[in-house]
Design brief:
Blueprint (H helix, E strand, L loop, with lengths): L12 H15 L11 H8 L3 H13 L3 E2 L7 E2 L4 H13 L5 H22 L2 H16 L4 H18 L3 H9 L1 H14 L3 H19 L3 H21 L9
Amino acid sequence: MQSPLDTLDRRPLYTQVAEGIAAMIKDAGLVPGDDLPSEAELCERAGVSRVVVRGALAQLAGAGLIKISNGRRAQVMSLDANVLTASLSQGLATAQFSVLQALEVRNGIEASTAALAAQNRSDADCARLSALCDQMQDAMEDADSFAELDYRFHLAVAEATGNPLYAYIVQSLREAIKTSVSAGRLAQPTAQDQQRILTDHRRIQHAIANGDAAAATVAMQDHFAAANTALAQGAAPQDTGS
């Protein structure tokens, strides 16, 4: 028979208060930039000490949900991709997932992203993607610059969808993308290889500019298929500059 003591919430009190504050943010309809109640008011509502409330606020700030500044109330934060970026970068660095696995996830997401970008892109989006391809052409001999531009290209595709969640996902994968691009250069060092990578991006860019969702999807899928092939054949983890 289960004892009432077995059902006690044994988590730290500040964690329980943090959950309560998060629920309050939702129930009150607060949005990014809105102030939370003062520490004194939170203490009164929760029936806990200032130390506990400060611990709860610190936990929420660490999770990227609120911002704490000296001399003013805590504020609700906008989505911050850096929170997930740190976790994913750590996962890649400590071999909790591989570059190939990251590519598999990106392939599933970015094929849809390309299609939606083709449907929703603006003239400014098209101009930005074209300019990034031009910059990639100029940076072919500079591995670090090329990797950064490659990431920015995929981010620009995500932003062209008009859905901020796609951009958030790509931003969170920034280090994984740049790591895979750099590995791809080691596996495919020839000028012909690098030109093929650029051609992949041009093909995606043209399909989006033409508003052809089906062609954009196929172009992105082919791009990742080439990346997976290079990874399987290479001696080191690699991407082909996706």
